[in-house]
Structure formats: structure tokens, C-alpha cells
Write a structure and sequence with these properties.
Chain lengths: ~170, ~170
């Protein structure tokens, strides 16, 4: 683009930053990577009782290329890790990752297994970790709200600089 | 009438002993299932006998898997079931730990093909005559046979199991 660089003053971009981040946080097309029982809780969160669509999370991305948010719901194995990485790489920026449940966070009950990854953050940068085994839909909803707070505070200069880090809400 | 009712384990014992004699090493009754331990040489023949004999008619292979018995070697366990007579028979065969080689039964039951491939990678058992002896579940660079007792779980080497193992808690009291 060249219009906004890392050296652009914050005051100059404040209005556009607000609009961009506001638009992004309420239009999270989600790509559910369901690997185990957490996926069932994810589906419960998407249905009418918990209904994460009211937060602007849309669970019908046709594939990774249309998605903004990747939810790793379940147990990532060493064999699955390259596939997850590849699908993550296919997602267009800006993209966010929620690690849902103990398995995706750190290996969970399979911490000593020969086949389970010790947390999805070994292959992907994770924005929000949702603890639980599996987390209740409410916990995922809170994780989504936390992610939205994070997106809201995101500095687009930093985001467009190619660095993946963003300000964490306090 | 032969072949019209489930065979209780004592009758299974009588019939397999009549057919295989001393090659039947043991027959047990476990929750109503006959468990036949057979010599390695006649394992394939016994499974075929259970499938083809009208009194058994075990037309369904539930699973074939392995057990690591430590110094006593690797045990192959095959479970067959009759969908017409509703009885279960398990066949056990003992293999030496250093060079476990077992005849395949995938020619008798196509189901056993994948089960044997899994047993192959998990226990390091070679199935002689298997049509596609390649890995089923493990990723390609994986080294070792993870369900063997001597397989090192690296996570546990770095950080030992924090809780008590089953049975240890009682001993401490």
C-alpha cells in the first residue's frame, strides 16, 4: 500500500485504525479445525443456545482461504501438524488463531504421548488460549471476546509491517 | 443340529483340542469367551478352522492386535466372532521378543489387513505374507515401536509422571 508505514504517526491513522479494527472484530469468518471432542463444544457454541454469530463469528467459511479465524479444537498430532500448518499458511492476512482446550494448548492429558503435539503453538502463532477439557461453549465465547478486544487494540502499522505480534489487552 | 447355537467355551475347548491336539497350549473362559492359546506353527490353520467349520462359523474378525509381555515375548491376540451363532473366540499366539514373526491372516479376513499393519508398527511384528506391509498410522519419520514396554516416552524422561501409578497409592498407606 505504502500509505501507512511503521513511521506513520498514530494520530494520523487513529480514525482508520478504529474503523478497520471494528470491522475486523465483528466479521470473523471462522475455520473450525475440529480434531476431537472440543469440536463438539465448538459446534454447540455455534448453535442457537450459545450462538456465537451474535458476536460476528461466522462458522461457514468455505475453506481456509476465506477464513479470518482458525480455531484448533482438539488434539493435534505430529502427523496432523504439517497439514494444520499448510492450511494456516493458506489463510489470508489478517488471520487469528484460537487454541481451544488443553490438548491444543499444551498436549493436555496426552502430554507424554508418542504421537501428540505438545501444544499447537509449536507450529502456529496463537492469539488466544481457551483452557478446559473440553472448554464449555461459554469459555469459547469468552475467548472470542478476548480476541475481539485484542483486535480492537491492534496497531495496524505493526500488523502491516509483517510482524505477527499485536498488543495484548490488559 | 450342528451350527445352530452359540458354543460355550468348554465345547470350544473340546472341538479345538480334538482337531489340534497338543498344539492347543491352553483354553480359558473369559467373560463367556473362549480364549485359545495355540502354537505359532498352527495359528493360521486354527483361524481358518474357526472360520470354515460350520459349528464355529466365525465369519467376522473383530480385531487382531498385540500385547508386550516383556521377557516372555509378544503376544498376538485375534478376536473372531460369529454373526450367525453369536459366539466369540479369541486366539492367542506367543512370539519371541527379539524376532517376532507371525503368519498373516489377512488372506482369511480382509479386516485383519489394517489391524496387522497397526500391530506391525506398534509392536515391530513382521507379518509373513502380508500384501502391503507398510505403516498405517504413524508418520513416516517415526522411529521405534511405541506400544512396546521398552519404548522411551521422551516427555517422561524430561519430566517424570507427577502422580502415583495405579496400586502405588495403597502401598504407601
Amino acid at each position: 500500500m505504502g500509505l501507512i508505514t511503521e513511521r506513520t504517526g498514530l494520530a494520523q491513522i487513529q480514525p482508520i485504525k478504529f474503523i478497520l479494527n471494528w470491522g475486523r472484530k465483528y466479521s470473523l469468518w471462522v475455520f473450525n479445525f475440529g480434531l476431537a471432542c472440543c469440536s463438539i463444544e465448538f459446534i454447540a457454541a455455534s448453535t442457537s443456545k450459545h450462538d456465537f454469530i451474535r458476536f460476528g463469528v461466522i462458522p461457514f467459511a468455505h475453506g481456509p482461504r476465506q477464513a479470518d479465524l482458525l480455531v484448533i479444537a482438539g488434539t493435534p498430532t505430529d502427523k496432523m501438524a504439517p497439514v494444520i500448518k499448510r492450511l494456516y499458511d493458506q489463510m489470508a492476512d489478517p488471520k487469528y488463531v484460537i487454541s481451544m482446550g488443553s490438548c491444543a494448548n499444551c498436549g493436555g492429558p496426552y502430554w507424554d504421548s508418542y504421537s501428540v503435539l505438545k501444544g499447537i503453538d509449536q507450529v502456529l502463532p496463537v492469539d488466544v488460549y481457551v483452557p478446559g477439557c473440553p472448554p464449555r461453549p461459554e469459555a469459547l465465547l469468552e475467548g472470542i471476546v478476548r480476541l475481539q478486544q485484542k483486535i480492537e487494540k491492534e496497531d495496524i502499522r505493526e500488523k502491516w509491517s509483517g510482524r505477527l505480534t499485536a498488543a495484548t489487552p490488559s | 443340529m450342528a451350527g445352530s447355537r452359540p458354543l460355550p467355551p468348554p465345547e470350544v475347548e473340546t472341538r479345538v483340542r480334538a482337531q489340534f491336539g497338543d498344539d492347543v497350549l491352553a483354553v480359558e473362559d473369559q467373560v463367556g469367551h473362549a480364549v485359545v492359546t495355540v502354537s505359532l506353527a498352527r495359528y493360521h490353520e486354527l483361524v481358518q478352522f474357526l472360520r470354515d467349520e460350520p459349528d464355529f462359523a466365525c465369519d467376522y474378525c473383530d480385531f487382531t492386535s498385540g500385547v508386550d509381555r516383556g521377557d516372555e515375548g509378544i503376544e498376538i491376540v485375534t478376536h473372531v466372532f460369529s454373526t450367525t451363532l453369536h459366539h466369540n473366540v479369541r486366539v492367542k499366539v506367543r512370539l519371541p521378543a527379539d524376532d517376532p514373526v507371525c503368519p498373516t491372516i489377512s488372506d482369511l479376513y480382509p479386516t485383519a489387513d489394517w489391524h496387522e499393519r497397526e500391530t506391525m508398527e506398534m509392536f515391530g511384528v513382521t507379518f509373513e505374507g502380508h500384501p502391503t506391509p507398510v505403516r498405517l498410522l504413524l508418520p513416516e519419520p517415526f522411529e521405534g515401536h511405541p506400544l512396546r514396554k521398552d519404548f522411551e516416552l521422551m516427555s517422561r524422561v524430561v519430566k517424570p509422571w507427577p502422580g502415583a501409578a495405579e496400586g502405588e497409592e495403597e502401598e504407601e498407606e
